[in-house]
Amino acid sequence: MKVGDVDLSNPVVFEAGVPYAYFALLRKEAPVTWQPSIYGEGFGFWNITRFADIAEVEKNVEAFSSKTNVSPMPTPESTLSSTVDRSIILSDPPRHSFLRRSITGGFTPRAIAKLEERIKQCAVEAIDSVIEKGECDLHDVAAYTPIEVVADILGVPAHDRQRLYDWANAMFGTTDPELSDPQKNMMGAMQMFSYARRLAKLRRANPGEDVFSLIALAEEDGEQLDDIDLGATFIVLATAGNETTRTQFLQGVLTLIEHPQAMATLREDLSLLPNAIEEMLRWTTPALGFARKATRDIEVDVRATLETDDGATIFVSYQGRSDYTKAGAAPIITAPLFETSDPRYLWLNKVQAIARGRAEGMSKLVYDIYEVQ
Length: 373
Ligand code: HEM
Hints:
15 helices; CATH 1.10.630.10; 9% strand; globular; two-stranded antiparallel sheet; five-stranded mixed sheet; binds protoporphyrin IX containing FE; alpha+beta
């Protein structure tokens, strides 16, 4: 395989599975590459694959703006105008800082502790609903908890949750014919927008403790968010926490089924679970990438300067797993947590994890740690 062999702009490439080997090759040989797009000129993007470069791109909000289309596929102008710079995920400071401030109240340690109870309750309900049968489609179990919890966060009443779930699927599953198509996608977005508008009206009149009440009441320079801002923020929160967590759960369980030894180790010692969850998150990578728009020409890697006269999109990819496990080796999920309150040493957890996974490859360890941090 050589650089240029895989067309990362083509969603079909990902149908057969994430091309991990190709990303590993890019990281090694060409960490910053220009990817022309199957959708024609204007849709190509710079593909950035190394951890250090990605961290740099994400940190430098002045040079790399979030105000852009996050999908590598063409997106209707109407969608862009109602999301770019309107939703938290597609905005830059100071607007981003304002939107972020307005929701932090919903994610304080107290609020999270309350949510934790609710998550446990949902998980028990999900298992109870299938346990009698002795078999299930795991997707049904995985789908239940995230949408319930997200709906709690947003203060969506129980009788509206199925609709919320259907709209979220219609919006996120455009490339999956079982879930959606471009028309359903548009309808889903419109319905969610108008739902958010109605909910905001109710919450302004009668606020709750939920995050959407905070957003509906937030003020910037004495003004509350308008309908489009509210809709865009509602949609991000309703979809961001739903599809990602469901995918994470399903891919994590699949990985454990494929690696029974890792599953057995975990079952024997549940104290390994916190680190295992972190590891499964890294291993499964539910969000495969994100986009930024470069505001000027800038050197990302010593080997490449991104020329952005044409306002080209930057697409960063998060796949890291093929760097430090051999093909077929167990995913590294069973290392105990390294106990320390000193943040300087927290990375040691990763070392233990890697060391376990590469019993006979220790000489490469130092390089690998550098890649993972
Ligand atoms: C496995 C689960 C999840 C994954 C993998 C994930 C992934 C991500 C990633 C990669 C970003 C950064 C995007 C960027 O740099 O432009 C992000 C941002 C965000 N996520 Fe998640 N997410 C998850 C769960 C959630 C949940 C449960 C919620 C809330 C209910 C949530 C809400 C958000 C929000 C609001 C942002 C924007 C933050 C900001 O711009 O300040 N996510 N997520």
